[in-house]
Amino acid sequence: MKLRKSLLVTMILAMGISVTGCSSGSDSGGSSGGSSGGSTSSSGDSSSSSQQASTSSGSVYFLNFKPEIAQVYEEIAKIYEQETGVKVKVVTAASGEYESTLRAEITKSAPPTIFQINGPVGYQSWKDYTLDISGTGLYDTLTDKELAVTDAGGVYGIPYAIEGYGIIYNDAIMQDYFALPSKTSGISSTDEINNFVTLKEVVEDMQANKDELGIQGVFASTSLAEGDQWRWQTHLLNIPLAYEFDENTAYESTILAGLASDTIDFKYADNFKNIFDLYINNSATAPTMLGSKTTNDSMAEFALGRVAMVQNGNWAWGQINDVDGNIVKSDDIKYFPIYTGMAGEENQGLAIGTENYLAINSKASVEDQQLSIDFLEWLFGSTTGKDFVTNELGFIAPFNTFTDAEKPNDPLAKEVLAWMEAGTNSVDWAFASFPSEEYKNQVGGSLLMYAQGQMSWEQVVEMTKSAWADEVALKK
Amino acid sequence: MERALKKYFPIFVLPTLIAFIIAFVVPFLLGVYLSFTEFTTITDARWVGFDNYRRAFATSNFVDALIFTAKFAIVSVVTINVFAFLLALLLTRGFKGSNIFRTIFFMPNLIGGIVLGYIWQLIINGVLARFGVTLTFSATYGFWGLVILMNWQMIGYMMVIYIAGIQNISDSIFEAAMIDGASPIRVIRSITLPLVMPAITISLFLTISNSFKMFDQNLALTAGAPMNQTAMLALDIYNTFYSRVGFEGVGQAKAVMFFLLVACIAIPQLILTRKGEVEN
């Protein structure tokens, strides 16, 4: 009898130990590919830092949003540990899986201490987890304090990269076109293209001469595959809606105006149709085939010189540059603003904003929170950190710690800066106020149906308006 | 011996029991609990009662997905079992190379659903490109794409189960039937079918529950395009969870209803087909 009892207790103990062993083991494994660097690097370079590392138990866990620069963060983590002895664990969520990864990771016993929210809407779902960071050096050095995500006097998200999107074009092809004897438009320089009418004239003439120009179409494929519709249902839709929200003078920003809108008029739906029709009718791909095209396909078409223009932002530089057989010279990559036929759009610039906000986990230990803030201040304030940000990560960082010489030199980022300085009116990123992911997906779905000829434009417009009202109502 | 077994039974069963509780019972109960709460992460939940169940029907997505899934399940359960049974009949005839064919037919089952989904997406889009359209053009294309994919993946598995069932039937019964002059069709109807009822039970159960629960293949092949018309229940639950702020609990509520639905279909099916089983 006694034997049985002790056996039972031993078994339970053994089970318990093996179970806890499992759970702590899976933490260091991480849920996605990029986690190894942070956790494995600790053994190699501990000679100088072992003293410090043994006295402080805290560490930084950074959940990275951008898979394309995951390796750079691993590198940064290594350098930072060498300099300060503080271990930085970097885990990168797979593309499109950030929210699910964050949800899973943040409930673990060692949750991310630094994570990312996508603006005021993302803040709503994570506000129980974001720390007020108004007193930090990071916020103090922010060039435009209004960019931060604030709530009732507290600061909960700090933008770390300003981005801009527009119509990227390959200037070499444009120059070929201007020199073409068979061209019928009177335009002979890209400077003359400053509104929708001239853009349309040039694009349609280029499409008519595509064989002479050696391209398959003017615009890269309007990627409407599921999960690849964001360039249209988010970025392009932003243009008419930003104008609409801008007219609501009761709010100081278009995002706030958008958040306060229970319904939208979609006043500039015709402008949206203008540019969307131009994209799908003068493209390398027939409109009915767009449902299988991805953003990668579009960027590859551009990089291989098969098309002259593609709508995207400065983050796409890496994608263009990394395509095998890329023939586009970096000097030839320029931007047009997205012209849609608005009155006075000659002064319109690129759509510039950010949806990348860093937040500190309010439920992490105070020590880890401080270490995380220190890490971010180092990254955006020290010479080594700034060098990484500018040259490796390629961010246009909105902090006054960066001098003019410390601006990124990839062609698209340089173009964004040039447009910002040119005195044009940038279009806000009002899409941060779109009611839900589901809303964007519904609009994307209707755009696909429109491209395939199964929905009329009136139905698309109706859908864009009614889905907005429905989604806002569902949030309440 | 038996007494000793009885005595130590709790100890021997303990490791499995603990694993079962940790891996199944606790997550299941937690899931049911979460369907009555509003939560961002599972450790922070606020009780909201049946609100999530009400909100699950605020949009037509769930019902649409249910109808699509039911259609899909009916078509694929019938086609998979018919084809698998016919293949099993063919491959138990004792042809040369039967084993090679069995292996080949079984192999698709070893490939993951996501991979299969992308492979079939390429194949089907390649064929449809000749007609200037893609899989996203119409929900009908997506529907039949999913049926083909599911058939291709499941037929081999079900075939193996049917082959095992057919091989279990004693040869003397067939011989007796032949001497009595029964036609081949009569043999199948009166001897093979009744005697492989246990295999039919398990095959129907597996195909029904797998058709209802299908997720990977759906996500990779169509991801619901166009406009969620080809989204099945599991994909709809996944989308609910992630595509609206504050809808995690609603997704959870849908998952609980989904579980009840699958259980309500699968358990009566098991009981019904069990009744049809006869002793060999």
Any overview of this molecule?
The complex is a heterodimer of chains A (476) and B (280). Chain A is α/β, with parallel strands linked by helices. Chain A is 47% helix and 12% strand. Chain A has three domains: 1-27; 31-162 and 354-402, Periplasmic binding protein-like II (D-Maltodextrin-Binding Protein, domain 2), CATH 3.40.190; 164-351 and 424-475, D-Maltodextrin-Binding Protein, domain 2 (3-Layer(aba) Sandwich). Chain A has helices spanning 2-29, 36-40, 50-55, 70-84, 98-106, 120-126, 137-140, 171-178, 196-208, 210-213, 230-246, 254-259, 269-281, 295-303, 317-322, 366-381, 383-393, 411-421, 437-451, 457-475; strands at residues 60-64, 88-92, 114-117, 149-151, 154-159, 163-170, 217-219, 307-313, 333-336, 348-353, 357-360, 425-427. In chain A, the strands form three sheets. In chain A, strands 6, 7, 8, 9, 10 and 12 form a six-stranded mixed beta sheet that branches. The radius of gyration of chain A is 25 Å and the shape is globular. Chain B is mainly alpha-helical and 280 residues long. Chain B has two domains: 2-51, no CATH class; 59-275, Orthogonal Bundle (MetI-like fold). Chain B has helices spanning 2-34, 51-56, 61-91, 98-106, 113-129, 139-168, 171-179, 184-195, 197-213, 216-221, 233-243, 248-275, and strands at residues 37-39, 45-47. The longest helix of chain B has 33 residues, at 2-34. Chains A and B meet through α1, α5, α6, α19 and α20 of A and α1, α5 and α11 of B.
CATH fold name of the largest domain in chain B: MetI-like fold
What's the CATH H-level homologous superfamily of the largest domain in chain B? MetI-like
Number of helices of chain A: 20
The total number of structural domains of chain A is 3
Order of helices and strands of chain B: HEEHHHHHHHHHHH
Walk me through the topology.
The complex is a heterodimer of chains A (476) and B (280).
Chain A: H1 2-29, H2 36-40, H3 50-55, E1 60-64, H4 70-84, E2 88-92, H5 98-106, E3 114-117, H6 120-126, H7 137-140, E4 149-151, E5 154-159, E6 163-170, H8 171-178, H9 196-208, H10 210-213, E7 217-219, H11 230-246, H12 254-259, H13 269-281, H14 295-303, E8 307-313, H15 317-322, E9 333-336, E10 348-353, E11 357-360, H16 366-381, H17 383-393, H18 411-421, E12 425-427, H19 437-451, H20 457-475
Parallel strand pairs in A: 1-2, 7-8, 10-12
Antiparallel strand pairs in A: 3-11, 4-5, 5-11, 6-8, 6-9, 6-10
Chain B: H1 2-34, E1 37-39, E2 45-47, H2 51-56, H3 61-91, H4 98-106, H5 113-129, H6 139-168, H7 171-179, H8 184-195, H9 197-213, H10 216-221, H11 233-243, H12 248-275
Antiparallel strand pairs in B: 1-2
Helix pairs in contact in B: 3-6, 3-9, 4-6, 6-9, 9-12, 11-12
